[in-house]
Design brief:
With about 220 residues, the chain is α+β, with helices and mostly antiparallel strands. It is built from 5 helices and 10 strands. Strands 1-2-4-3 form a 4-stranded antiparallel sheet. The termini are far apart. The relative contact order is 0.13.
């Protein structure tokens, strides 16, 4: 016995979820279900919908173990079973112990961020600020929580104006957050002067320009 037998359903849910809701399941094993999150739904809603579907299909549902920002698309890892199941505790422990590695591919505005293949590490505490009914994160030495982000330069790009003169430059980077703070990648890249393309919140000036060819962050 592997320790998961009593907790984990034996059904294959990938095809059922795809047919029922159009959700793409990237991976299912004995304790996890990895979903493809699109930018038109938040993590909690996607997990909640799939959780209900799995219960109706005879499974034990899903437990949220990680989240992606609303406008972020990518792999959303969940645990099969209730929040008290062996599988959920196992997967949560991987994230809590920082054994799970998250890799994001980001297109950043601004001057080139080092030579091709160069690495940077941004370590700056982040604080969530509430104002006018909304919240955002900022770098703050007072009250901020530890946050670290690793950046690897993968490629460069540029835009030219009608006269052939370079109008803007961009860096395509492989980014790995060491911690998991709210909007961590967006804030850390913006604090380096390289906000994500079309990010109105943390790179407003560049965001307005970039929406000419990229409508969302």
């Amino acid at each position: 016995r592997d320790g998961f037998s009593a907790d984990v359903p034996r059904l294959d849910f990938s095809q059922q979820l795809a047919l029922k809701r159009g959700v793409k399941v990237l991976l299912q094993n004995r304790c996890t279900l990895a979903l493809l999150k699109t930018p038109d739904i938040d993590s909690e809603s996607l997990i909640g919908q799939c959780h209900g579907d799995l219960l109706r299909l005879g499974g034990l549902g899903l437990t949220c173990v990680s989240r992606l920002d609303l406008k972020t698309s990518g792999v959303l890892v969940t645990a099969l079973g209730s929040s008290t199941s062996t599988s959920a505790n196992y997967v949560l422990a991987q994230f809590a112990g920082r054994l799970a590695v998250k890799t994001y591919h980001c297109l950043c505005s601004g001057p080139l961020l080092g030579s091709l293949g160069s690495k940077a590490f941004r370590s700056a505490p982040l604080l969530i600020v509430e104002a006018n009914g909304t919240s955002h994160a900022c770098v703050s030495l007072v009250g901020g929580l530890e946050a670290g982000t690793s950046v690897l330069v993968k490629a460069w790009y540029s835009l030219q104006d009608s006269n052939g003169v370079q109008d803007a430059s961009f860096t395509f980077a492989e980014v790995r957050p060491i911690t998991g703070r709210t909007h961590q990648i967006r804030v850390h890249l913006a604090s380096l002067g390289r906000p994500l393309v079309s990010d109105f919140v943390y790179g407003s000036e560049e965001g307005s320009r970039d929406t000419r060819w990229c409508p969302r962050v």
